[in-house]
Design a protein that fits this description.
Elements lengths: L11 E6 L17 H20 L8 E6 L6 H13 L8 E7 L10 H18 L4 H16 L1 H4 L14 H16 L1 H16 L3 E6 L6 H14 L5 E7 L1 H17 L4 H7 L7 H19 L5 E3 L3 H4 L3 E6 L8 E2 H13 L4 H12 L3 H11 L8 H6 L4 H14 L1 H6 L4 H5 L3 H15 L15 H6 L2 H11 L6
Parallel strand pairs: 1-7, 2-5, 2-6, 3-4, 4-5
Antiparallel strand pairs: 7-8
Helix pairs in contact: 4-7, 9-11, 13-14, 13-17, 15-17, 17-22
Length: 481
Amino acid sequence: MIQPTAAPEKSSEVLIRLEHGDSAKALSIDQLVHRENYERLRDQVIKHLNAEATSRYDPGSGWTQFLDGTRGAGKSTFLSSVKVALENDAQVNGHLAFINLIDPSRIERSEIILLVILQQLRKRVDDALKVQCRSQDEQLREEWHRTFKGVAGGLSMFAKDYHPLNDLDPDLFLEWGLERAGDSTNLRAKLHCLFSTACRILGVRALMLAFDDADTDSTHAVSLLECIRKYLDAPIVMVLVTGDLELYSLLVRQHFAQTVAGKREAAIELQRRSIQGDRSTQYLRMIDHLEEQYLLKLFPIHKRMQLQPLWNVMLRANCRVTHPAWGTEPIHVKDVVQTIVRRGLRVKTSGDVAIYVEFLLKQPLRSVLQVMASCAPYLRGSSALTLASESWSAELSTALCRSLQALALTSLYKFSVDTDAIAAQEFPALAQAVFDLSLLDGDIDTAPYLRPMSGACTVFCVNQPFPSSLSKVRSGRKAVV
């Protein structure tokens, strides 16, 4: 029996090293921003492994965990870190084989997801068989090759427009057709047998597969979900999936619109062109129902985990940050962001500083870390006290201006803001952009203050580069952007 780790009574410690850059490489658990999510995930893995050790094999009782997060929430880094941590965990490693981390968005569209999974599994098992030389291992080797060959008939059905029976006479068509139908219907059972054999060869209770950002490519997104639903629903196969649940919802909706109404765009068209008596309301209701229940069945509520922004993480964890320019003493994230706002935007009132700090910390994790990493070299100080005591810095304002413009670039383009002119410090272009957005915001009295308080999300974001631009213009110094 594997003993799960007791839940920590105190808030966890998280150390963010800005010098590591923005790569998705694995981090140690103490440097993982979503450390609390990892601890919960680890306990769920151990709980399932214990249950699997005492229960009968029951198809349909698979284990799938969905890690929900927007773009830039840190999903890839989290998944890479989970893989390394579980492989090095003494309590888990001997009971679980982490096969691989698969990114479907990097797979060619013509490829079949299930074949990619089997290729990774065969490589792992073949490597294990090479070092096993006992007599009983030879039986396992023969069983592995036999079971792997047994799934070949069903896998041939995945080939597009494949039908080898077209040119046969009626008697052979019936005989071979029944055999091929058996291969197709028994594929799920044969795959489960293959997974069970792999577990015995690897000496573990379960296999784990991880899929990162499948929703990035709609070609593989629904195919992956269908693969999990049809073939990976055995308790000996544990599946981790990352993605944006909102995006998955749209893709699943398109899938069922194609199934129910014949077109992927049907759900949108039915709403736009609804005519009384054409049953469009009924179509929409059925598509809504299928979308909701499909996701609930595949990703149950208790098997979902959300990777939240740094603002929410800091409510439960002591997040500190370090950079070589500051020395070796870590500084609290909030102190660093406050200093960036005070010295970069030249904001003095504590209430205004708090508004900007909240805005920045609620951005996607990747955005926050990149802003801090860009500004870090210009924060000369070894502690929160010395950071706060420093005066305004033109270099810091320039770095912050670049970061905020990059952060809101899509919104700036959406509202036709002349970013090149503003980057060249042309004050008329900046004034025109502020005027236009103030009218768009609707609150003419307070909108020109450029605080991040607009009710519209896009206007809320697009205003943010302007205070740093104004700060540079007021300084009277030439800055290269």
